[in-house]
Design brief:
Layout (H helix, E strand, L loop, with lengths): L14 E6 L11 E6 L27 H30 L6 H12 L5 H8 L3 H13 L3 E7 L4 E6 L1 H22 L4 H29 L1
Antiparallel strand pairs: 1-2, 3-4
Helix pairs in contact: 2-4, 2-5, 3-4
């Protein structure tokens, strides 16, 4: 299971969310929120983004003392368990393509972006440029990407997508949609709406805490 690092909240109307680990190593993490359109899930209504209700008064007792530690430990364990299970499930979906979830993310990000740099990808994935370049090199070796000539004046190397790379990216989109449909089958629109709102809220707080620690350490 990859370490929790970045959390990408879906945060878009008409989407439902699920956690999946990007599986990065070192400083990077891979907790992401992948989105699937509500319209793509039969019987699922589009979230209206109602505000998340406050916790019941009885639940606030868990915010102090030993109960807080027990509650938080259980919550962290559940998040990690979901993260690991979804990571393994997504890996099984794309294993025959010879990619890891993180490599699949990088490929799709390069296809979707206009001339992304290793620095931009590293910032999004919360990992080092060296780690990103290693993953890019693996994608180049599989004939999915290609490095261009360095551009003056900064010497930044262009990243081009091969025809096979574009086909694989489309195949990843197709498989992700089918995978998410299976995972979300049976959930009500209200449950999916609440799940997305809670994950987005948790992501915002986690990213805010990371930024605060970085400022204190600067």
């Amino acid at each position: 299971m990859g370490k929790v690092g970045d959390v990408h909240a879906a945060g878009r109307r008409g989407h439902a969310a699920a956690l999946v680990s990007g599986g990065t190593s070192g400083k990077g993490g891979g907790l992401q929120v992948l989105a699937v359109r509500a319209a793509d899930n039969p019987g699922m209504t589009a979230p209206r983004f109602a505000p998340v209700p406050p916790a019941p008064r009885a639940a606030t007792r868990y915010l102090g003392g030993r109960r807080a530690r027990a509650f938080s430990s259980g919550l962290v364990a559940e998040v990690w368990a979901a993260n690991g299970a979804l990571h393994e499930s997504w890996q099984a979906e794309i294993d025959d393509l010879g990619l890891t979830p993180t490599e699949a993310f990088v490929l799709r990000r390069v296809v979707a972006a206009e001339e992304p740099t290793a620095t931009q990808l590293a910032a999004e994935m919360r990992c080092s440029r060296i780690d990103v370049k290693r993953r890019l090199a693996r994608l180049v070796a599989q004939d999915l990407l290609a490095f261009g000539a360095p551009r003056p004046p900064d010497g930044r190397m262009e990243i081009a997508v091969s025809e096979r790379g574009r086909w694989v990216a489309k195949e990843l989109d197709r498989r992700e949609t089918a995978w998410m449909r299976r995972l979300l089958r049976g959930f009500s629109g209200a449950e999916l709406e609440m799940l997305e709102a809670l994950l987005a809220r948790l992501a915002t707080r986690a990213n805010g805490a990371s930024s605060a620690r970085a400022r204190r350490g600067a």
